[in-house]
Insulinase family protein (Borborobacter arsenicus), 998 residues
Amino acid sequence: MNLEAGWVARCGRCLLLASLVLFAAAFSPMQASAQSGNGDNGTVADFLLDNGMEVVVIPDHRAPIVTHMVWYKVGSADEPAGKSGIAHFFEHLMFKGTTNHKAGEFGARIAEIGGRENAFTSYDYTAYFQTVPPDALETMMTYEADRMRNLVLTDAVIGPERDVILEERRSRVEGSPDALLDEEVQATLFQNHPYRIPVIGWMQEIKELNRAEAVDFYNRYYAPNNAVLVVAGDVDPDDVRAMAERTYGKVARGPDLPPRMRPQEPEQNTKRTVTLTDRRVSVPSFSKAWVVPSYHSDQPGEAEAIDLLSEILGGGTQSRLYQELVVKAGIASGAGAYYDGTMFDDTSFTVYGSPRGEADIYAVEKAVDVEIRRIIKDGVTDMELEKAKKRFVRSMIFARDRQSSMTNIYGSTLATGGTVQEVAEWPDKIKQVTAAQVQAAAAKYLNPDISVTGYLLPAAEPAVATEAAPMPSPGDPAETESGLPDPVQADPAHTAPAN
Amino acid sequence: MNLEAGWVARCGRCLLLASLVLFAAAFSPMQASAQSGNGDNGTVADFLLDNGMEVVVIPDHRAPIVTHMVWYKVGSADEPAGKSGIAHFFEHLMFKGTTNHKAGEFGARIAEIGGRENAFTSYDYTAYFQTVPPDALETMMTYEADRMRNLVLTDAVIGPERDVILEERRSRVEGSPDALLDEEVQATLFQNHPYRIPVIGWMQEIKELNRAEAVDFYNRYYAPNNAVLVVAGDVDPDDVRAMAERTYGKVARGPDLPPRMRPQEPEQNTKRTVTLTDRRVSVPSFSKAWVVPSYHSDQPGEAEAIDLLSEILGGGTQSRLYQELVVKAGIASGAGAYYDGTMFDDTSFTVYGSPRGEADIYAVEKAVDVEIRRIIKDGVTDMELEKAKKRFVRSMIFARDRQSSMTNIYGSTLATGGTVQEVAEWPDKIKQVTAAQVQAAAAKYLNPDISVTGYLLPAAEPAVATEAAPMPSPGDPAETESGLPDPVQADPAHTAPAN
């Protein structure tokens, strides 16, 4: 099971997987192919079941497969104070037995028919998916609807799974200097909002998670009226509706949840730095982050402008940062920007860089700052804006090529307060952004005196090369086409549920 | 009404009131005169009323006055997430009318008899006090017991008072660069614990505080079984008991509160900085802080060792920092250390300094670091340890000189999980601390690579001198004798309740 925090930690502030970083910059989940329809594949259907469950069906008849995803509108930012990690913990528990099926039965069934499955948890949502032949879709729905309400949550189930998660944290976070740094950058950047708390949870709080809390969490958040079903593939929307009614439709509506009001950020006034010096680091790197609006929290048009700012400043090999620092000056082995726009509340905008040859990290940071100031002062050219818009539009077309991209775009948008209509309108809204809006966004949000910079530095002693994380070259075109990284691809070790 | 956060903001990380800082270092609230008794003044009495209210009586017959304080075991760190400021807000509301007395009546009565009153809110407690002639004590108790349960909390009361508090925040925090910096240093130092949130609350959350939340807060926390009554003065404990039974004793017990379990700090791994550059700053300064155990959260003996470490390193003019940086090297106008030991959970240890003449702030910081490393490497001498212990013991004797010091020592100790016995045993525990323990505390907690440094810097343009806060010379002996700063003295503008 994946943890989206893992993606952030690996790919984010610390830029160790720059190709994944690139996805974020070049490929907002808001980007989607559905304008009025879905190309030659038919119209995207969107309806509600009687119990409040939203259903989105994206027809895609190119191959006899279907991707079935359920997105719960609950993530780590919804956790009670002091109970960090319970959203992700619960994701693991969903692979345990129910009153109708033994643990492992669902997974075995998927494996038997050659399908794939996984799940992931992020700040705003938790999602479960399977990719299977279309004739297995109703079976998937039956199992998924079953575990929405019928999990058996005994201490015998909870205890061992908590140990699995503690081990996961040890390996993914404590074992990774960039993940450790990312956690403290995030905790420093967000002074009040729960995005400051790691998705996987703080070690000391994971240790205390117990059955009563898991049951409360399940009863509160795992209900059809807090979930979105997204189905993409070789299916007919009417058939999907009938199947959904026969399966999910039988699950009783859960409690009406209050609006998702998380503590918001105060006005920030300071420039902050967070430095991790670690022997396991071989190549130093830095990232600089700001709190900026998301697609859900912004004023109209702002998030689109920030998306294009991110693309022009640091999205891939055509971006200013890459061209100036990596290609022309040759002082950086990598440099870029990314923006996590598909979030419920105000989110982060990040620039990053890593030195090359004799250059030191502070020279790279300075050069990045120069490029930011240049946009604030002189704006962007119409030509680079047009090119960035074209790259975005093209990426939409590529997104259609993977069912998982499409389901992720719809699911993450709907789970963070967006609508199918917003997904459809996104390309037009991108086209309407002006150069002046991009400049204004940079001037408004990228204040160098109010920012958080993370430095990942090698310890004085030489690092052990084999322990250092690899630094893929940014701009891997395969990744720019993928939309949201395919969770299965991103973590092949977890294609089978953890036990 | 005072806000203890105000003291911290003014005196703390930003060292602008170094004499108050000194109090914190040289005068732990755990220090008290009561060993088995209270010198010639009689034994400290400690008992419970039937409704669960704890009462401490400290006889002091030198003058015909009495200090009457009620401490509620609730502070800003107990606030629900997203409702910051409600503890302090509630402190203001306590000066409004009750079902028995109009707003202002209590205060007018105190003024009439020449008494003084005030209140303050901190992370772990909220306290109310009056100093009056002994024959007015029962009247004070009557009024105080009345407002414990009978406040009239209408929207007409809540709205205007919220505006008062918003103005208080604008003036005390937004109007003060050091307070602004302190807030963000604190939010950076504590990554998870609510000590990260300002006592006065974040502006955007204060704005949303409403009647329903105030009523909930009142019903939950303002009850005799969540309060400690501390009376010091020219009174007989048996008489106080009888009066307390006649007044507070009639207030019904409140709900049983669960243990105060706040989210705890994760393991920290990074070195962080927080920089505020502001035109109102004329003299730059820095502070460096670490999360360390408090008297309530420590392993036996640790807090005492940290207290002595703070005293030897940076407590007043005899300390290493002052002697080395101010006296010998002449590079600092002030330098010191302080430790907030009387806290419920893990707290902070801070060193600070400000340059003088041609020296820059980073040279001062480096010199402070050298002194810390020297203690970690070579420890402290037996002679300086003995001297520090003597200063502590002497300060206890001085503490007896002010009723407000004594009431503050008992009240803050009892409100943060301590006992009267711990107050009594504190001097002996201090005497038992060894040089090795002081060195071990420095080595364990003052890791330069895991710390948070705040820099308060003048903007490029020259500061307006009149706006800069004054920098009193550290080590004002009057303050070292005062125990907790007298809240009335600390903020004379607030001796009468607001508006």
User: Anything to note?
Assistant: Chain A touches chain B at residues 81-82, 84, 180-181, 183-184, 187-188, 191-192, 194, 196-197, 202-205, 261-264, 266-277, 449 (CB under 8 Å).
